[in-house]
Amino acid sequence: MHALEQKILAEGIVLSDQVLKVDSFLNHQIDPKLMQQIGQEFARLFKDAGINKIITIEPSGIAPTV
User: Fold this and answer.
1) pTM of the model
2) pLDDT digits (tens, 9 = 90+) for 24-33
3) 57 within 8 A of 65, measured Cβ to Cβ
4) Theoretical Cys-Cys bridge with 21: which of 8, 13, 34, 55, CB 3.0 to 4.6 Å?
């Protein structure tokens, strides 16, 4: 998704080769416009998959599942 990629490039912070800090727009603080775009993309990608529940195992996954 282009909008997410651009946001990561602009505001993501690389902490190591295994950690990308995105809490300024995805975890601790939420960019509602970006989250809406992500939700629309998820809906487009999975609209025919018959999904009726989304389960997340950590708080960071709550916003995208909504």
Assistant:
1) 0.69
2) 888 778 888 9
3) no
4) 13
